[in-house]
Amino acid sequence: DIQMTQSPSSLPASLGDRVTITCRASQDIGNYLRWFQQKPGKSPRLMIYGATNLAAGVPSRFSGSRSGSDYSLTINSLESEDMAIYYCLQHNEYPLTFGSGTKLEIK
Amino acid sequence: EVQLVESGGGLVKPGSSLKLSCVASGFTFSSYGMHWIRQAPKKGLEWIALIYYDSSNKYYADSVKGRFTISRDNSKNTLYLEMNSLRSEDTAMYYCAKFSWEADYWGQGVMVTVSS
Q: Which residue numbers of B have CB closer than 8 Å to A's CBs?
């Protein structure tokens, strides 16, 4: 199974900061990588698909990138509504596997 | 508007069975593969099963293989998850989801609690 190693697990940040969350894939997954945002009591929301593409309705301060087997989600100029847990998901092969999550919280 | 509505959750004892349903609307259900994903309390997301649009292929996570069965009835726009030999570690919110390349749709989730 493909392991997705996500870091950090917790990310204290201030409003207006630029933050980056990373997932490393244990095997090649191409660009079959999605990023989700989850707020308490809510279903996950797709933020990035195909490693670098912004999903519909997602603010442009979010972006996704790839460097080899490392996939990153960057949020520029953090806003209060961005405080949530973020997960990566590889969907290159079954079983699909999620990263362990990053809790983004106000410092 | 795409809607996915799960039902069938509840409190059950270890070793028992439960069958979840997910009713879909707002899209051509019979054209899409469907997933079940779960989340234990205060834990991360875990993908557990996929069924192809025509039921020709099914995939499972190792944690549920042999105990859970995913199925669908395209005439009823309904996805199912039959769960047998339930364990305490199966306690979670269960979501059905439809993934396409550019968009995802998730239900609101249904809670399953396995406890004596």
A: 35, 44-47, 50, 59-62, 95, 99, 101-104, 106-109
- Give the HSE-up count for residue A87: Cα atoms under 13 Å, Cβ half-sphere: 23
CB contact under 8 A, B44 and A101: yes
Residue A39: which pLDDT band, with cuts at 50, 70 and 90? very high
pLDDT for B51: 98
How many of the other CB atoms lie within 10 Å of CB of B24?
24
Angle at A51 between CA A56 and CA A12, to 5 degrees: 85
Using one digit for the tens of pLDDT, what is the confidence trace for A80-98? Answer: 999 999 999 999 999 999 9
Using a 10 angstrom Cβ sphere, with 0-12 exposed, 13-18 middle and 19 or more buried, the burial of residue A56 is exposed
User: How many CB atoms within 10 Å of residue B71?
Assistant: 14
Q: How far apart are the C-alpha atoms of B86 and A5, rounded to whole Å?
A: 28
* Single-letter amino acid, residue B81: L
Separation of alpha carbons B45 and B35, rounded Å = 13
CB < 8 Å to A53, chain B: 102
pLDDT category at A107 given cuts 50, 70, 90 is confident
Percent of chain A exceeding pLDDT 90 equals 98
Sites in chain B below the pLDDT cut of 50: none
Are the Cβ atoms of B104 and A46 closer than 8 angstroms? yes
